Amino acid sequence: MAARHTFFLVSSTSQRIFSLGARLRYVRRGVHTAACLLKKDSGRKTDSSDGEVDPRLVAAAKDVASSLGGGERVESALLQQLRRHEDTTSAAKSAVTPAETSADNSSLGDLISGLRVVQGQKTNRNATRGNRSEVKNFRQEFQQTRQTQPRSEQVFRKERRSLFEGKRLGIFMQEEVNSWEPDAPTLWDEEQKAELEAQVDRPPRNGFEEMIQWTKEGKMWTFPIQNDQGLEEEAAVGFHEHVFLEDLLEGFPEKGPIRHFMELVVTGLSKNPYLTLQQKRDHVDWFKNYFQETEPILRASGSLTA
Amino acid sequence: MESPERERLWWNAGSMRTQTDKITSGGKRVSCYEAVPHRCACRIILRSRISRVQSDARDGDDADRLFNSLAEPSARNYCSLIKGLVKDPTSVDYNFIDDPYLIPRTTMQYKWFSLAKESGQKAAEFFINRNPQYFQQEFAEPPIEAFLPKTSTFLIEEPCEEALQERMSRKALKAATEMYFQIVDGGGTVSQDMTDDLLDLLCFHGSKDPVQEANLLSPEEQEYEAADQAFRTYNEMQQKGLRADASTYNALIKSVKEVRDRYEERWDLVQQLLNQMRLEKIRPTLQTFNATLRSIRFCGMTGRKSCLDVLREMAHLGIEPSLATYNHIMSIFNPSNSPPSQMLYQIMDEVEGKEFTIQDQDDSRFFVDAMNMCLRMNDVELAYRLHKLQETGENWRLLGDAYIQSVYYGKFLNLICQMEGGEEMWKWYRNLVPSVYYPNVPSILNILKSLEVSNMHHKVTDLWEDIRSLQHFNKQELVEAVLEFMAREKQSPEIQLLFMPVVQNIKDNIEFYYKATAPARRATLSWSSESLSNLLVLFLRAGQLKKASEMLPLFKEYTKTPRAEAMEEYLAVCVEAKDKAKAKAGLSVAVHCGLPKIVEYAENLKSAMTEIKQSEIDAILKEELGVGAEEVKTNQ
């Protein structure tokens, strides 16, 4: 369980302090529990005289403490943390096994408090080399993704472009491809497209989608409502053709009951908005036909004269 | 003045929701076809669990705003209305809103009920088309074709090309082939195009093609796994100098893995085919490149090197990659036997925020494969991004059928259980279940684990309700896990009391199954020593000593051994309650089951409860041991 780790923070001094301060809540609790867990020596103080903290860091810590408003406690906690880092770095530098030292407590405390591992710090590269195997083991054991993510983001922001940048297959050239005619879609292609569409066709998710579907199928009025929906051919026929139907009376006798009757028929038809023009003409034609067929009977009854 | 013949469906604005008095547009007529059910206005009030399902109650607020905007002519765009509607996680699918009894509770029910609805519609259509003479009256003017029976007779009867065309356009394959043979037998000729179209239709829909033509297109053979034959036909075509089209090449490229075995050979063949396309001046399409990538999946490391080259070729030609492309690339870079690569991050960066349509049959595998990858990489943030992508625009349609969707959501929830805390997980759980996902037993076990880690034991009542409605209440593993979850640690008294309904329900369930007569049913759920011990402990902790003592005979009856800690807890509670009879019962069970620390228990009891005399204890011991001895004797 005694894993030896070295934790470093990237970036400048004050940023270091501030990021420490930001995690102060976790750090403090984490440190406390870690210390309790590893309590070999209950009264032990962790500020050893081994690690000397940079006076600039100390001053910065004081600034942070005052800005956070925590006062003495904040400042002392920050300084403790910094000293702990100094301990571990110095211990690693000197390659002394920090098994019993406070570094062990501290590293585990840092572990639990969730500080990040960031590699590549130049100053302590020698130290990391020695501990690399342990670092790897740690990774595999705990598998904290928060640690892999910043790495991936950094590394792959520069690789992101490379998904589309780089060498091509080199078989097709854009200019000549564009000059080729695409084949006309065969029935096969259409069938395939229809099959794909069928896969994506889902039942409507709400009343609106259902209404859209019905409108497409023709079961619903389209909005805004046109009363002539579905009767577009009729719209092309002018009203005068519906109303002025006198020329349809041409084949009929000039006088007599038949004429009278047909005039009434034509008047009625001209007022009828429900029949198409063709239907009206058919209507009149039917009468014409009928009267021609029954001509002998009409003559006999006297309705037709001449 | 409305003509009665002019009736159609009026948009019954009044049926949409109750606050429609403000609606000015649209009438309130209900046509004779459809009494629009007040589905959107009905509240489903059943048990407390189902009362969460308030159909369109959420939608009500959105729709109200939208309806008011309908008065302005500029806002009359259905699509923009719909995009404003947010999915309501507490309601069911729109299909099932009518009847609360028919709201599906498990995946199987979901499938049955949706299919039932569809099949009902088909049955009605079938009936109408079978008896068209009864459905001739046209209620609407002009008539609505959708409601009239479909004519099964064709207009043109004599053998001629138009007749063939008509039959093909109606996709009446049998009639079309018959017509074709009629023409040919009658001595007429059919144009090449027509024949090709007929062949396409036949091959696509899978019937045997009796006619062999010179330029038979090989994709048809592809579909039916005759890869060798397809390549042979292709070679013939090449020899005869016939030009194949793009879909032929696509199909050939797809089936390369069938005809070649080694990675290099496969990749070489693919490249040959692509070069051939260039020579014949056939324009490559998205499907070409997708087919190439699909074959590269089977080309091992050789293919992997060239995978991104293909992608860049596509980009160079201006072809926009589809989700299938990205799916193939992701799979190529993440073979199952090696640790996951970072390719998915790059792909997500590229794909985020875009809307896709279906262009390739592998598109619907993208989301589930990507979620699988997130699970392998244990990256929940990436999973959230993926989920967001799926919610963009119409991308949700590309999630696939019900089975693939359930796999996707299962993996998603699994990942959240593993990586996120209990609170977050519960939020997602409430979001997804049961509106889009019906968890299976392993999922629920994960959820239990996550709840346990976060000490959210009070959620067990809600979870048990869900388990019951999902019909998982009789799964042995799950029941034991739930009992373990409740009993592992001693909780605060309020929570122990909260457990009681669940505990009682579980006990009743198990007893019910013991009463079942059919042996298969009887074997569904049984007592085990863990479940009995856990129940004992749970009753004790809730302060129900009497119920706990009722558990004791069950140990003897089903010959299960209680856990030592459980027995100790029981005896301690008996001592506290100063209940001599129950203590003695406990001791006798302990002796009967042969727990190791019997003597200790006996001593403790004697010292703690002065009413118990040594003689009584001796009696118990004698009885139990005597019984034991007798059993031993009889066995001998």
Care to describe what's here?
The complex is a heterodimer of chains A (306) and B (636). Chain A is mainly alpha-helical and 306 residues long. Chain A contains 15 helices and no strands. Chain A has helices spanning 13-22, 24-37, 55-68, 72-93, 102-113, 125-142, 145-160, 174-179, 187-200, 207-217, 232-236, 239-243, 257-271, 277-293, 295-301. Chain A is elongated and about 140 Å long. Chain B has 636 residues and is mostly helical. Chain B has a domain at 361-454. Chain B contains 31 helices and no strands. Mean pLDDT of chain B is 79; it is low at 1-61, 69-76 and 208-216. At the A-B interface, α7, α9 and α10 of A face α3, α7, α12, α14 and α16 of B. Chain B: Belongs to the mitochondrion-specific ribosomal protein mS39 family.
This entry's quaternary arrangement is heterodimer
Please indicate the percent range of residues of chain B in DSSP E strands (runs of 2 or more). under 5%
In round numbers, the mean pLDDT of chain A is 70
Number of helices of chain B: 31
- What is the β-strand count of chain A? 0
Structural class of chain A: mainly alpha
- Distance between the first and last residues' Cα of chain A: 127 Å
Q: What order do the helices and strands of chain A follow?
A: HHHHHHHHHHHHHHH
Major beta sheet summary of chain A: none
* Overall strand count of chain B: 0
Can you tell me the overall shape of chain A? elongated
Determine Rg of chain B (CA atoms, Å): 35 Å
How much helical structure, as a percent, in the residues of chain A?
55-70%
Shape of chain B: elongated
User: Termini of chain B, distance in Å?
Assistant: 101 Å
Helix content of chain B: 55-70%
